[in-house]
Specification:
heterodimer; A: 370 residues; alpha/beta; 20% strand; globular; B: alpha/beta; Pyruvate-ferredoxin Oxidoreductase, domain 3; six-stranded mixed β-sheet; two-stranded antiparallel ribbon; 8 strands
């Protein structure tokens, strides 16, 4: 069905269609609309699910962990401080190998208090072993959420997946949305190590120095295997529903001499900048990183790179810029822009390309005397 | 691409007006995005929201800096906000007022949305509802069609007085 919806509504609608048996969540701006909409679906009977309104994000993830190991598909959504509050259990979900899906509406961290878009919240969970995808449109928010369940629950993966969408600039804007008849795209939830509720028993997870590292390696092995699972799921999605996705979304990159790399809505708006630059005779292209974990293998040899980071590792540099540098050996022009919802237009992005200084870092809007 | 900036105060329905307009344009078969700029999130504070309408998919997420149309739901905002900022040379202003705005530097249309809301008894918690009548005025201006306006309003609101108010604004606006 073709309609028009916000990014938050798109996520909630995908959750309705994926039919998780348990949803546990706590509201936080700018994510609240997701859990409110899901609560409405449950109340109206459009989604038959146990909706657990918990008292904190820590408990939300704890409830999802309990339900997931009990053999039920689970979902939660959060943002910013909420994500950080559940951090301990974000790690736990990975170690327990639970295919929980969580939407994270990317928002800056306080103080100063700020509810607008930034990727620092997701980056702070970088090493938790969650797969992370960043979306750039309302349609993609829906599609990626549906696919997240299938990827997470694949026996070659069995890792949780975080679907990231920019606070306000995607969560609260309305764009067209085509929902799908999901059919048997998502098989019934089947967790090989689920607790048998007919004969319930659990095992203390004490794991000594002789064994612990094996479990850590197994997480990494699954993370590596997830690349082909993601590709398979995205291929099947394209065949069934006609919309194709990959580890990156490349726009006019084939003959590009300079490529803009970004994530989320800025990565999408970069395409407009590329069109402007092309009309001026600049051979520009853009590459929007969709998957952040596992980090994609990208081929950008021989081009200038302009990397836009909506997050920063203090004392080190732009998180995406450094990921690109360590993956490819390239020396990108690292632009730190859009922190806390800072306004960045396609004209600004075109300026980043025109004024690029490979190997250097630039904080947009900051001058010597600030 | 046609770009619209809506000025209102928190609680007056500017954000909903943007969403209704995008929905109506979508019903007309266009691509549309509605982007509210959330600021103070307090009732009474000046707020701004944006709508883009195009025949092609829209990839722009930033704010509108050079609008084709500026809508002012509350003229008292004009004392504190430069609503004409960045308006295109051939751009238009639509204000909620019973009277012609003296000294407006741009092509300026006016319609008494507050009066229409009061006459239709479209009042919630003492505040006249402006976001549905303004859609009728926009249909008169040819930005969306009146049938799509009716559809959009009925999709979001059950109270038929919202449609009547839009039709009244469509009737009253002189273009």
């Amino acid at each position: 069905m073709l309609t028009i919806a916000t990014g938050n509504k798109a996520v909630a609608t995908a959750v309705r269609d994926a039919k998780p048996g348990v949803i546990a969540a706590y509201p936080i701006t700018p994510q609240t609309e997701i859990v409110e909409q899901i609560a409405e679906y449950v109340t109206a009977g459009d989604l038959v699910s146990q909706y657990i309104p918990v008292e904190s994000e820590h408990s939300a993830m704890a409830a999802c962990i309990g339900a997931s190991v009990g053999g039920v598909r689970t979902f939660t959504a959060t943002s910013s401080h909420g994500l950080l509050y559940m951090h301990e259990l974000v790690h736990w979900a990975t170690g327990a190998r639970l295919p929980i899906v969580m939407a994270n509406v990317n928002r800056a961290l306080g103080p100063g208090w700020n509810t607008w878009a930034e990727h620092t919240d997701a980056f702070s969970q970088r090493d938790t072993g969650w797969l992370q995808v960043f979306v750039g449109t309302v349609q993609e928010a829906y599609d990626a959420t549906l696919m997240a369940f299938k990827i997470a629950e694949d026996e070659r993966v069995l890792l949780p997946v975080m679907v990231n969408l920019d606070g306000f600039s995607l969560s609260h804007i309305m764009q067209s949305l085509e929902t799908v008849e999901i059919g048997d795209f998502l098989p019934p939830y089947s967790l090989p190590h689920a607790i048998d509720t007919e004969n319930p028993c659990g095992y203390g997870p004490m794991t000594g120095p002789n064994d612990y590292f094996r479990f850590r390696w197994d997480i990494e092995r699954s993370m590596r295997d997830s690349r082909s699972v993601i590709a398979d799921v995205e291929r099947e999605f394209a065949e069934r529903f006609g919309r194709s996705y990959g580890p990156t979304e490349d726009y006019r990159c084939e003959d590009a001499e300079v490529v803009v790399i970004g994530m989320g809505t800025l990565g999408k708006e970069a395409e407009v900048a590329v069109d402007r630059l092309r009309s001026e005779g600049v051979a520009a292209g853009s590459m929007r990183l969709r998957w952040f974990r596992p980090f994609p293998d990208i081929d950008i040899a021989g081009r200038d790179l302009v990397v836009i980071d909506r997050g920063y590792s203090f004392g080190f540099g732009g998180v995406v810029a450094h990921s690109i540098r360590s993956k490819t050996g390239a020396e990108p022009y690292s632009v730190i822009a859009g922190l806390g919802g800072q306004e960045v237009t396609y004209n600004d992005i075109a300026d980043f390309v025109r004024d690029r200084r490979p190997g250097e870092e630039m904080w947009f809007g900051v001058s010597e005397d600030v | 691409m046609y770009e619209i900036r809506i000025h209102s105060r928190g609680g007056q329905g500017g954000v909903t007006a943007a969403r209704l307009l995008a929905l109506a344009a979508f019903r007309d078969g266009k691509y549309a995005t509605a982007c509210p700029f959330y600021g103070a999130e307090r009732r009474g504070a000046p707020v701004v929201s944006f709508v883009r309408i195009d025949d092609e998919p829209i990839k722009i997420y930033s704010q509108i800096h050079e609008p084709d149309l500026v809508i002012v739901l509350d003229t008292s905002i004009m004392d504190v906000v430069d609503v004409l900022q960045g308006l295109k040379e051939d751009g238009t202003v639509l204000i909620n007022s019973a009277h012609v705005l003296e000294g407006c530097a741009a092509a300026c249309l006016h319609v008494d949305l507050t009066g229409i809301a009061l006459a239709t008894d479209l009042v919630i918690a003492g505040s006249p509802i402006l976001n549905t009548p303004v859609l009728g005025a926009l249909a008169k201006m040819g930005i969306v069609t009146l049938p799509s306006v009716r559809d959009a309003i009925r999709e979001m609101f059950a109270d038929e007085r919202n449609v009547q108010a839009a039709e009244a604004a469509h009737e009253e606006l002189k273009v």
